[in-house]
Amino acid sequence: MKRYLVILALLAACTDVYDYDPASAGQPEGSERAPRGKTTTQFLRGIYADLLGRTPESYEIVIKFQGTEVFRFTADEEALLGASLDGLGDSQPMRNLIANGLLHSSEVSLPEKSAVQPREYIRDQFRKLLGREPNTYELEAFAAEWDKDPAVGPRTVIRAIIASREYQSQ
Fold first, then answer.
1. Cα 108 from Cα 52, distance rounded (Å)
2. How far apart are the C-alpha atoms of 99 and 112, rounded to whole Å?
3. pLDDT at 7
4. 122 within 8 A of 128, measured Cβ to Cβ
């Protein structure tokens, strides 16, 4: 009996009804924003920062013959690589080659596979390169390959993330 009185009191107390007009923010629900790829400059500066911790540099090249300067020119990493990428219809394969070259350069020091915990390393790279945590599927897929294939290690994880559509279109 007491229960009915409490329910009746609650129903009597909640007599006000409010009607709100629908509101929306951002894009309509269900419509996904199509990813827009990074420009060549964004990609190059991003990959240099992420992998080397620096921006692309310029170098002064001097060619001498018998001690006399014959030719001098400037080699700008960003301009040379950018021109190569911009000259291609599909620059994705070349972007992957650039990433691979940088990962194998002497400027990049990666830990040995045996020196890191796979899941922790994968999480760290997702945070560093994508700015987010890996979801469960991503983490387990990377970790399974790490455990299964002796060739999969720190360099492979970074290459896979950099080659991803998400990294390429941030």
1. 6
2. 19
3. 64
4. no
Distance CA 146, CA 152 (A): 5
Query: Which residue(s) pair with 61 in the sheet?
Result: 73
In residues, how long is the chain? Answer: 170
Structural contact between residues 166 and 129, judged by C-beta atoms closer than 8 angstroms: no
Averaged pLDDT, 9-24:
62
Q: What is the pLDDT of residues 115-157, one digit of tens each?
A: 999 999 999 999 999 999 999 999 999 999 999 999 999 999 9
Give pLDDT tens digits for 74-86: 888 888 888 888 8
At 59-104, the pLDDT tens digits run 898 999 998 988 898 888 888 888 888 887 778 888 888 889 899 9
Identify the CA nearest to 61 among candidates 72, 51, 49: 72
What single-letter DSSP state applies at residue 18?
-
Please provide the DSSP assignment of 89-123 as one string.
Answer: S--HHHHHHHHHHHHTSTT-----GGGS-HHHHHH
DSSP bridge partners of 75 = 59
**What is the gyration radius of the CA atoms in the chain, in angstroms?**
27
Look at residue 58 and give its three-state secondary structure.
strand
Q: How far apart are CA 117 and CA 111, in angstroms?
A: 11
